[in-house]
Amino acid sequence: MSTVQHSFKSQQHPLIRSLANSIEQAWQQNLELSPYQIPGDLGYVEGALEGERLMIENRCYQTPKFRKLHLELAQVGNTLDILHCVMFPNPNYALPIFGADIVASRGEKGAVSAAIVDLSPISPDLSLPSAYQLALTNLPDLQFSQPRALPEWGNIFSNFCLFIRPANAQEADAFLSRVQDFLTIHCRLADQAVPAQSEADIASIRSGQNHYCTMQRQNDKTRRILEKSFGTEWAERYLTTLLFDSAA
Question: How far, CA to CA in Å, does 172 sit from each of 70, 75, 98, 139, 143?
Answer without folding.
Answer: 22, 19, 19, 17, 12
